[in-house]
Amino acid sequence: MSQFQQKVDVVRSERITEDVVRLTFNASKIASMARPGQFVMAQTSSAKDPLLRRPFSIHQVTSEGYLQILFKVLGRGTELLAQVRVGEQVSLLGPLGNGFTLGLPEAACLVGGGMGIAPMLFLATRFLQKSSKDSVSLMMPTVILGARNRAELEPLVQDFQKLGVKVLAATDDGSFGHHGLVTDVLKKLNLSPLASVYCCGPHPMMAAIARLCQQEQRACQVSVETVMACGMGACLGCAVPLKAGGYAHVCSDGPIFEAERLLWSL
Length: 266
Ligand SMILES: Cc1cc2nc3c(=O)[nH]c(=O)nc-3n(C[C@H](O)[C@H](O)[C@H](O)COP(=O)(O)OP(=O)(O)OC[C@H]3O[C@@H](n4cnc5c(N)ncnc54)[C@H](O)[C@@H]3O)c2cc1C
Ligand code: FES
Prior knowledge:
2 domains; 16 strands
């Protein structure tokens, strides 16, 4: 699989909320090879602090060679990245890891929580492209998105709506969509037994969805996040335990895993 290290131009910087930022890069090589669920490692500083690149899911790519990431400011790396201006350059390494395996669009349920929404836009786009290629009428995946409140969620929901996808929303404070968890919405959906779930979000959310899918004997792919140093299988710092024993490395074996392969701690 081809990977590139590219210094790319920042062509757009958007503040979604005070601490959530979306950057658009002109990154044609990485964009042309990217699959939903893969990630890039971004250098957040040209100085030595932070020394290590930071991993971000590929949020969207376009046929014109643009690539987006969507991130929350947590610490020094994301703080510096949030300050990058249009016209400046960022070094990206990618696309890295294994992406989602796409099944039938009409039997796909995409669930994103918090910044776990990031890879879902690219995934929804690819499902729609697959649908328009394979069938006469456009088959839409079901999308469930959750966040803390309306301010965080509404702008992201609108991006999916622009694709023509209907979104079921859930917020912790009830200010937008269902008052509660994305898992409540998923349970009430009455999905076809053949539907597969594609999920990314906080660990407790993914553990709950993995459990639910296991009870229903439903296929479920999850996008796992760990702290990463190299992103390429060299440092062994991103290990997660497997149900069958042993460990997998999120950067090289994942970040997408079949949920039933992992040993869930919750
Ligand atoms: C494959 C992958 C894809 C990711 N995609 C996205 C994305 O699309 N959007 C996004 O906002 N974030 C994403 N992340 C998380 C993102 O990489 C971290 O938030 C970022 O590295 C933090 O860097 P920092 O220097 O700002 O914070 P640091 O100073 O490195 O850390 C600040 C705090 O956050 C904690 N932290 C750092 N990384 C993680 C993590 N992965 N999980 C939980 N806690 C963490 C640290 O322990 C520390 O307490 C992804 C992570 C992985 C592994
Ligand atoms: S981050 Fe180094 S092996 Fe995965």
